[in-house]
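Lab meeting, action items carried over

1. Structure of the two-component assembly. Owner: GW. Status: complete.
Input record:
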Amino acid sequence: MNCLHINQIYLYLEGELSLSETRSIKNHLSSCEKCRMAVEERRLLLEASQDLPSWEIPQDFTRRILEQIFPKKITFREWAITGAIGLSSAALAFLAVYLISGQNLASLFINLNQTAINLFRNMIVILVKAAKLISIGFQVIQKIGSLIIKGLTDLTTVLGPELQIGLIVLFLVITALLFYGAKRKFPFGEKA
Amino acid sequence: MSKSSNVTKKPFQPKSVLKSEGSKPSVDEDKELVRRTLQGDKQAFEMILIRHQQPLVNYIGRMVGNYELALDFTQEVFIKTYSSLSTYQPRFKFRTWLFKIASNYIIDFWRKKKIDAFSIDQTRHNELDRMSFEIPSDEPPVCSRFELAELKEKVEKALEKLPPHLRELFVWRHINEFSYDEIAEIKGLPVGTVKNRVFHSKELIRQLLEEHE
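Predicted assembly:
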């Protein structure tokens, strides 16, 4: 038998050869110092490779993944407990402010009440203004709409039926192209 | 070796010397767990996580070279696996399917970072696959000069320098202890090609040990 190839050595060491091939390699090794040394080299390399350390996994790793996949639903009891803790903390903070500032508790309540009333009043003013703005917006849209309808009506009296169909088709094509362009620019909910 | 720009390059320091737990996951048990998960059994998916998270972290960690990134990617791979579990075909081994997802995930990541993903996605036959190495007449002893513990450290360092497409195969074969058939199934390559590439990866590691001695 000729000297071994590297591939043969690995196949031999990993037990991937037939019995007769293994036997003939063993015979060759008993008489070839060079191949014996080459096999020993690869045997050590394999031994080291098969015993490399694992990377540590945090103890809560499985739980973290499970929480991502199956998000926990918050029960009414948990909501209630969280709310109670929040309210108690706010009350404690309020009490701490009162004790540190040395203010009269009654005046503190009055100030707080006044602030709340002012806030409420301002909010009402803002809401009224917002409603007015929305109403003006609607009026503008309505006027533009009626102008467009009037324009189209006048146009139909001037244009023949073929031209009207042509214009509708042109409008649809432009809309489709705009939609297609927007879809390419902003992939609506599609995976990246 | 090409690496992502946001990957912190720190010397490899395994956080522990734990070997992946116990015996290899049984193929039939995996399929049963998948079936139960699809029926809504959350504990079955938890079992899948426990069985496969260590080999997956070992693989992804060595591919990206960063501990935090390895954990994040493993998490993402499991989420992806869960969401596409209904497409799993039981005629394939579950873990080959899982590692195919992981391998594709890493390739996608490198593509997005504009890093040459072809080096890992190399599925063509090339000269290397038909190569048969002869033992040089003056081959110096390399591995036999080190104690086993030292040799393991040096192999781990050399592994970082391997081209990704060879490192991947080496990790699957020697750290995750996959069969050549399983690796061939994951990569969609002929078994002979996989064997040659794994052998080549080991010879490259040996060369690196020789050069850095």
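2. GW to write a short summary for the group page. Key points so far: Chain B touches chain A through 54 residues (CB under 8 Å). The radius of gyration of chain B is 18 Å.
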